[in-house]
Specification:
- The chain is α/β, with parallel strands linked by helices.
- It is 31% helix and 13% strand.
- β7, α7 and β8 form a beta-alpha-beta unit.
- The longest helix has 17 residues.
- 19% of the residues are buried.
- About 2% of the residues have low confidence.
Length: 294
């Protein structure tokens, strides 16, 4: 500490021509020179798609490569801008779990049924008198405590497990699933689903060449717009499924390892999913008859 104070005093008592503390401070205040921009290594990839819905000012679009299924070499044709509110949302695992469990159970019907003591055959009379025999009192041999008797509190099917999640939760589940697929590099965007041949072996070799995994879900805008070659190829493969955009769901995305979307499907999903963020919620339920007067 004494050495530091001694050095500071010597610098303060230096003549004017010497570089003292004031000169050092002025040099520190001077702005640094702007570094020259580095030359790009090569030409930038073209952006084949822009986000049509408006993007919030505090966020930026997410970019993904656009591929082609026409050959093995056309793996990267350009870039596509994806809306951050659909493909880069908060990773809500709880919502994803809720939607997956709901989709599994809301159509479930259990047909398990057991017979009560009234439905089991026999046991109409009292097995022995109430008193005098020394044995425990019973009124029927089909009581639940008897072997061969009825079942108490057993399942009484058919039982429906139907329940409905709010629309906001279901929409958020789709967004979270798309976000996870893109973050894990399991979401691929193609210009179209056109294949050079309808041979299913070509589709399997293409997936193996691009490391898509064993199961692939191909999504197009509508069933009528799907090419004949890809429909013929996927019809002979168990792990390659083809669905329209309106049928995309959380269970199918989690079940398949790779998700392949067309550019038209991306635009359709962004339009439909973003509409729910600002949609009108009626104060009067639509299921009830509407009237103008209260």
């Amino acid at each position: 500490m004494l050495q530091l104070l001694r050095a500071g005093a010597q610098a303060w008592l230096r003549p004017t021509g010497c570089r003292g503390l004031n000169a050092l401070a002025e040099e520190a205040v001077q702005p640094l020179e702007k570094p020259e921009p580095l030359a790009s290594a090569g030409p930038q990839a073209p952006v084949l798609r822009k986000c049509e819905p408006p993007v919030p000012a505090h966020r930026r679009p997410v970019q993904a490569w656009v591929e082609s299924l026409r050959s093995y070499e056309q793996e990267r044709m350009g870039l596509a801008d994806l809306h951050p509110d659909v493909f880069s949302t908060a990773p809500r695992l709880d919502i994803l779990h809720q939607v997956a469990i709901w989709q599994k159970n809301f159509k479930r019907i259990s047909y398990a049924k057991t017979k009560t003591r009234a439905e089991v055959r026999g046991g109409g009379r009292k097995p022995w008198p109430q008193k005098g025999s020394g044995r425990a009192r019973h009124g029927s041999i089909r009581s639940p405590i008897w072997r061969g008797g009825g079942v108490a509190h057993g399942p009484r099917g058919p039982t429906s497990y139907y329940y409905m999640l709010p629309m906001k939760v279901r929409v958020q589940g789709l967004k979270v699933a798309l976000t996870f697929k893109l973050a894990q590099d399991d979401l691929h965007i193609v210009d179209s689903l056109e294949l050079p041949t309808e041979d299913p072996q070509y589709l399997m070799d293409l997936a193996r060449y691009r490391r898509w995994g064993d199961s692939v879900l191909l999504v197009d805008l509508a069933h009528e717009d799907m090419p004949q070659n890809v429909m013929a190829a996927t019809s002979q493969l168990k792990t390659f499924n083809l669905v329209p955009a309106v049928g995309l769901n959380v269970h199918s995305m989690l079940k398949h390892q790779t998700l392949v979307l067309t550019l038209q499907t991306v635009a359709f999903l962004e339009e439909k999913l973003l509409w729910h963020d600002s949609r009108y919620t009626p104060l009067y339920p639509f299921r009830l008859p509407y009237c103008d007067f209260p």
